[in-house]
Hints:
The complex is a heterodimer.
Chain A: E1 2-6, E2 11-15, H1 19-35, E3 42-48, E4 67-74, E5 77-83, E6 86-88, H2 91-102, H3 111-114, E7 116-121, H4 127-138, E8 139-141, E9 147-149, E10 153-156, E11 166-167
Parallel strand pairs in A: 4-7, 7-10
Antiparallel strand pairs in A: 1-2, 4-5, 5-6, 8-9, 10-11
Helix pairs in contact in A: 2-4
Chain B: E1 2-3, E2 11-12, H1 16-32, E3 48-49, E4 61-67, E5 72-75, E6 78-81, H2 85-98, E7 106-112, H3 118-130, E8 135-142
Parallel strand pairs in B: 3-8, 4-7, 7-8
Antiparallel strand pairs in B: 1-2, 4-5, 5-6
Amino acid sequence: MKIRHSTSSGQDKIELQMTPMIDIVFQLLIFFIMTFKIVAQEGDFNINMPQASPQSAPPDQVEFPVLKLYLQSNGGELAGIRLQDEPFESFAALNRRIIEHIGTDSGPGSNQETAQIEIGFDPDLHYEHVIGAVTAVSGHKTPDKKIHKLIEKIQFLPSPGGGAPAITP
Amino acid sequence: MRIRKKDSGVFEADLTPMIDMTFQLIAFFMVIINFAQTEQHAKIKLPESSLVKPPEQPFEHQLVVHLTREGRAIISGQEMAIDGLRITLDGEARALELTQSRVSSATVVIRAHRNAAAGEVQRLIKKCQESGFEKFALRAKGSTDP
């Protein structure tokens, strides 16, 4: 700050130097631009799994038998998808089959509410394929971008060490 | 810009609008920037899913555990083997109980790398169950695929 006293007239005139302030402001701006990161939206599939094993609880009286899905791995990559021993080429084909199986009702007591599926997989399978399977069986997107739910009760088959998490909404 | 022509050709520029715009930009980036480092980790590439959407409400109590593609767990910035998680998880469980909340009401958010072995994810879930956690959220990133 340069302060110039003008004693003759009794008036003070203060001049501010803007240059250093602009320099610091640009420094701050560059810092924030460098640390800005654009990230993709993240979402969750929720699992509810109490310590008590689900096998100890008797299965609910359901008209729908529990569907069994198995994912085979070949060095981590997806080698095969089998639903009730029927092979599928892709998760899209599996999704179409599940839509046929479940139908489009979603009220209480409908197939969508009562259907259950068990997903087993080879332990070395890449996790992204398990998420792909969960995506394929839990819903599909209609042309108007709405999510239509399919099977909500999803269970993982026990790994060799035991413990089977179940996915419930 | 005010240009005052003299014989010497002196230019005077009014910098005030430029500084105003610069302050606006700084304020924008300060608000946007996210300092929550525990929620993200650069090493973890999440699997994609067309069905995920961000949760409507944040979880009541959440604990974020990352899993690398090699099967190593990262919790609170520390990397360790899944078996070594027990101590940290018990600590978190005790901390929750001290704040009068139940461990069973807390959600463990699992951010596993897309190429992590699914068996390791199951092992991680089992480890968390041993410390009393019951709710889990498998995190995936949204995809733009139809």
